[in-house]
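BUG: 3D viewer hangs when loading the predicted structure for this chain

Environment: internal workstation, default settings.
Expected: structure renders.
Actual: progress bar stalls at 90%.

Input used:
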Amino acid sequence: MRREDELVIRINSEGKIFVEDVEDGVKKFKTVEPDVFLKCVKDSIRTGLVTSGIMPEGSFFYGAGDGGTQKICIEFPKRRCDIVYEKTEYHDFPLPRLVFGFLISKGKITNVNLGVVDEGLLTPKSKMYIYPFSNVSGFRLCCGGNKLPEIKSLHQLTGVMHFIMSMPNNNDHYRNERTKFDVELRQLFETLKSKEPKDYYTDVLIASGKTLQDFVNS
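Structure tokens produced before the viewer hung:
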């Protein structure tokens, strides 16, 4: 295209689009339908590579939306950790296979989901179970008065998951019928402290009727 060549686009008050194309001193005029014009504009836009940064170990879903909002789902890497119920600490407490879902906006964690998934290869159809402990309603975690830290990089979510698991459990959102044992939460912790993680899937958990895809979509 030479320096004197140009392309002029005019839109009148009625929304009609007129294109004036000057090439080699020759002017050409044509009208363009709005949907065709919008497609041309969209097809001409080029964006650079969008990266997530270093992802936490166990990440199995990532999405980015408008305004820099990010969603990430991660498998918790431990099957044992220290658990607190009210003022009692249970060391090296066995856990089922836990998955976390984080919604993040400008470094702030705006929502946390927590669920129990089946053993084996993770697929969209992997079975989900009712979370057996407290502070979770459906998949949504209630942090109570605990303030979650701001993050600058997604890999920091590994530490956030451990922080969440260290928060004291109380009776919020707990019901006896969450597990096959059908007992109060104190008795549940006392019963499970001597179990193995695999025992959850034979003796404890109740299927929720949801899948891992439902967890991701929630």
